[in-house]
Fold this sequence. Notes:
CATH topology of the largest domain: Rossmann fold
Structural class: alpha/beta
Strand content: 15-25%
CATH architecture of the largest domain: 3-Layer(aba) Sandwich
Radius of gyration: 21 Å
CATH superfamily of the largest domain: Vaccinia Virus protein VP39
Number of helices: 12
Distance between the termini: 74 Å
Helix content: 40-55%
Strand order of the largest sheet: 5-4-3-6-7-9-8
Oligomer: single chain
Number of domains: 2
CATH class of the largest domain: Alpha Beta
Number of strands: 9
Amino acid sequence: xxxxxxxxxxxxxxxxxxxxxxxxxxxxxxxxxxxxxxxxxxxxxxxxxxxxxxxxxxxxxxxxxxxxxxxxxxxxxxxxxxxxxxxxxxxxxxxxxxxxxxxxxxxxxxxxxxxxxxxxxxxxxxxxxxxxxxxxxxxxxxxxxxxxxxxxxxxxxxxxxxxxxxxxxxxxxxxxxxxxxxxxxxxxxxxxxxxxxxxxxxxxxxxxxxxxxxxxxxxxxxxxxxxxxxxxxxxxxxxxxxxxxxxxxxxxxxxxxxxxxxxxxxxxxxxxxxxxxxxxxxxxxxxx
Length: 288
């Protein structure tokens, strides 16, 4: 007797659950949908349909990769972010839902200003998900996006070419703002910098620690907000007189930075919390 879609889905879920996945049902749905060339809804529409050996073999291969720890986004080769489908692989971080809060707050800031064509500097672009999402939403915007990894920038350029082909985005390799020398000042500086302390890196889940690029995660010290401090210290030169800098924060980032930020008379600082009530976005407005 052959397997139905639902039976195969249940078997894949049980296999992944036995190996400690965070959401084995969702993982199994995404992987089976990939093999069958459908979406998650399609699986349930066809739940009682038999599957052939090719589907079973294809799913087995993908489940094996996931059980070994490879992120689902890398297996599928894509990840949805802010309504767009980004191509991703091991050259860049997997875009996270938390980062969508950063994009949302940038859009809110722009809506409150009268910038006809804001200049945006994104530091550490990775897959390009922030730069591309902003270009897609804002239209009239000029973006310089930097990263130390030429491999990551290749992913970002491909995403931009596919999703916002006409956008004014320049991707440049180098350390933080150095590749943008001469392009400023900017109305917006945006960054989701590495914010995992060196000690914490060893405690990350295997799918992050073993598969995602370490330099995009590691703050390089025991201070998780070391990169935030570096960028903020440079904002006096980077920002236009009415400019705003926005950063994604680690869970404890707001508390760690608070005493230091209080000494910065040049800026007005505030945080925006995520749905869990954690201060997730730091907004720094230059005081004219």
